């Protein structure tokens, strides 16, 4: 099952599992020191960024490829939700008809297959950015215990790309989330969307990992990019 369908499938449960994404969106929006009026949220999901914006604005356009998420996004006269792929040049060609004062993206761009390509598309809109991207330290101990390489790009790699395309400051922030047991932990991994719902282990391997995982928490690493 592809990522889009997994995100839609768990959309109804997502609110109780996206505690880290909410913290990321809160920090991302808090880093904006002005009050931009025309906003774009790339990979908007169910509206974590929109829910954090406290200032009055004129327009917010949210883009996501999962219709199940868009259906849960806040609605209103000032909000437009569009289904689209953040790697699609045609999407950005259509967005150029609108002026944006700031572009947000929280917890989405780590899944771009070609981040340089995606950054170039975002830059083509000529607006300041506030981006938060999960990086390789996310689930670091879990992948080490499983004997697997990190699922995501390193923070250093993402920062190099960000500074290539944007005049931006970058900051790595780490989070942890504790669980009562490993079963709840792995249920969170599946339903939160943080892993992109990539199945990289067999059932037997997953069972062994649950038995051998040495921590009572999951680790997350996020690079915040502000221009």
UniProtKB/TrEMBL annotation:
> What keywords are assigned to this protein?
Methyltransferase, Transferase
Matches recorded under SUPFAM superfamilies: S-adenosyl-L-methionine-dependent methyltransferases (SSF53335)
GO molecular function terms listed in the Swiss-Prot or TrEMBL record = methyltransferase activity
Q: Which InterPro entries match?
A: Methyltransf_11, SAM-dependent_MTases_sf
Any idea where the Methyltransferase type domain is? 40-123
CDD domains in the record = AdoMet_MTases
Q: Which organism is it from?
A: Sulfurimonas diazotrophicus
Presence of keyword rRNA-binding: no
Q: Which domain of life is it from?
A: Bacteria
- Can you name this protein? Methyltransferase domain-containing protein
GO-annotated biological processes: methylation
């Amino acid at each position: 099952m592809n990522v889009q369908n997994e995100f839609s499938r768990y959309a109804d449960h997502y609110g109780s599992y996206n505690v880290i994404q909410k913290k990321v969106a809160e920090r991302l929006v808090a880093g904006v020191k002005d009050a931009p009026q025309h906003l774009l949220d790339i990979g908007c999901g169910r509206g974590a960024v929109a829910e954090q914006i406290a200032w009055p604005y004129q327009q917010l356009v949210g883009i996501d490829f999962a219709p199940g998420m868009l259906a849960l996004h806040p609605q209103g006269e000032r909000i437009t939700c569009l289904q689209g792929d953040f790697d699609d040049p045609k999407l950005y060609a259509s967005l150029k008809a609108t002026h944006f004062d700031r572009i947000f993206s929280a917890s989405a761009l780590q899944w771009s297959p070609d981040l340089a390509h995606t950054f170039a598309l975002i830059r083509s809109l000529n607006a300041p950015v506030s981006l938060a991207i999960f990086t390789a330290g996310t689930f670091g101990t879990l992948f080490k215990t499983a004997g697997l390489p990190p699922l995501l790009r390193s923070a250093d790699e993402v920062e190099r790309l960000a500074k290539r395309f944007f005049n931006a400051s970058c900051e790595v922030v780490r989070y942890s989330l504790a669980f009562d047991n490993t079963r709840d932990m792995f249920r969170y991994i599946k339903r939160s969307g943080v892993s992109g719902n990539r199945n990289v282990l067999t059932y037997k391997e997953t069972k062994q990992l649950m038995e051998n995982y040495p921590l009572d928490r999951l680790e997350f690493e996020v690079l915040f990019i502000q221009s």
